[in-house]
């Protein structure tokens, strides 16, 4: 069940996606709101589950036979999600003062956390269509890549709306966040053979 505060935050995140800065008024930027925003991962879980299930189902036969068991595959993806969810907020907290974002750090994390739900939905939708055989995997891969581009732009908008800063800073933070996610995913894939 979606709580009123979560509903407000998700609406605000969607408004920001549409380019409406007034969406920022829908977020709770209090200390409690900051910590509650990490609970947005619960709203992401259905989308995450769809993506992981489709990824597991579409693994090549040689990987399915020689690769990790189903349980290990799921554990590796789950750990990847958890670490990815907290890694960038922790790193930014450590360097916030040096980066000159100490005052706006919490606002950025609140919006980023709730916006992650919006970012996960289209990827899960195209994965589901591919997994059900409604669209060819090749087409889904191209659409998925386009979605990544749109979501990177969305993340750029979030950085601008919450942290301000220069274009270079915004691009750098978005790129760093993406790179960290890819690195963590690669580490877990190697560790678990997934």
Strand-helix topology:
Blueprint: H1 4-17, H2 31-37, H3 40-57, H4 61-66, H5 70-99, H6 105-131, H7 137-163, H8 167-192
Helix pairs in contact: 1-6, 2-6, 3-5, 3-6, 5-8, 6-7, 7-8
Can you give a write-up of this model?
The chain is mostly helical. It is 80% helix and 0% strand. It is built from 8 helices and no strands. It has helices at 4-17, 31-37, 40-57, 61-66, 70-99, 105-131, 137-163, 167-192. α2 (31-37) packs parallel to α6 (105-131) and α6 (105-131) packs antiparallel against α7. The radius of gyration is 17 Å and the shape is globular. It starts with a helix and ends with a helix. The model has no long low-confidence stretch (mean pLDDT 89).
What is the element string, with H for helices and E for strands? HHHHHHHH
Overall geometry comes to globular
Q: Level of helix content?
A: over 70%
Q: What proportion of the residues form beta strands (DSSP E)? A: under 5%
Mean pLDDT: 89
Radius of gyration: 17 Å
Number of helices: 8
**Alpha carbon gap, first and last residue:** 32 Å
List low-pLDDT spans: none
Major β-sheet, in short?
A: none
- Estimated structural class: mainly alpha
Oligomer: single chain
